Amino acid sequence: MLSPTFDHIRPPSDALKINHPDNDKKHGQNERLIRRIFYLDNYLPFEEEKIEAFNALLAKQNLVLPDWWRKEESLRWIHAGRFDLQKTLNMVKTHLKFLEEADKGLSPGGERILRGGTIYQFGRDRHLRPIVVVDLAKLVRENLPIDDFTNALVFLLQTVKKTMFLPGHVEEWVVIQETIDLSLFKLPQKHIKTISEVTQTNFPCYLCKMFMLNPPFIVRVSWNMLKGFFDPMTAEKIDMLNGSTLNEIQTLVDPENLEKRFGGSHPNLEVFWPPQLPKRQNKVSVVANNGQFDVNFNPRNYIVKEFQQTGPEQWIEVEKPMIKLQEETFIPSTKPVESILKPVPITLDPIPLQQEQRRATEPNQGVEDKRENGLNINVGPSRDIDVNTNKQSFYSFNPCLLYTSPSPRDS
Question: pTM to 2 decimals?
Fold first, then answer.
């Protein structure tokens, strides 16, 4: 169970406004399909067929998945297995065993590594994706035991995955690898191999972008030669920057979320664990029930809470749970509602189930475009509970609002 001190790094309430363009959620067709967003999106017929076939394979194998496991997670692993269902099954079995070990928590040696800043989480990019930093130069200097490093890596990534994502809105992370003053022969090969194995085997489809800063010359040359053989979308995720090109990272990350050593404006960190927020933030408004690993997770029923920092590692809740509404007003969360947006009731007579299902599948039925506070809001009809009358009605609703910050290359 996560420590309550991690509540301050949950997704900012502004994450509810992020909506990814369709070609950013997925790209390609059939076996060449690459997907980046798995929640709150319509799946292609090819994906639905693969999910159905995978479920049949699970039943045949008598493999029972965890209670929190959802269709979206199955699709993530199907993509990770490149639609080879037997490979996907083997990967899932390996991952379930991994989770048993991961749930044992952070070891004393792993905690020392996190507090030392060899690997840590700090800041978010312009689309609120969390940033993970790996200081390979420090790792070499300290010659860290591989078991302790693996424990620290897994615990940190699990914390980010469970705490900092908002399904349908924020489902990827950005990685910064610092290699300054390292030659090709000084690169920590065992630790790099561990990072690769852990992330590919147990955290698939989470990487948005990796910045390798100040890589050795031979590594830059080799990458420029080899990246042409990679899938363009995969190759686009990896950038090697140094000196004159270091500021390119700011196309994706605001300077306030970057330390000065990476070309940002934030002072270099001295405290790395628990994860820190930018200095200007000592009070945060976050989505408190964002975890898709909660059995009761509902991606259209979010609660916003506020936390204030009272000490170096202490954050306390300062207000009662609130439901986030479109007009930036709040109501106490005394009962569940299906939407994060304020209902706009429309009186309708009851309709047969078949007609309701047909209405739900018709594209752009009754869609209305609005401009509010600099945000493009696309709203369409949906059935829900009116929090004022507690009656069922149709109203304009779409939980994904367009986030209009400067667009990076990969968005």
Answer: 0.75
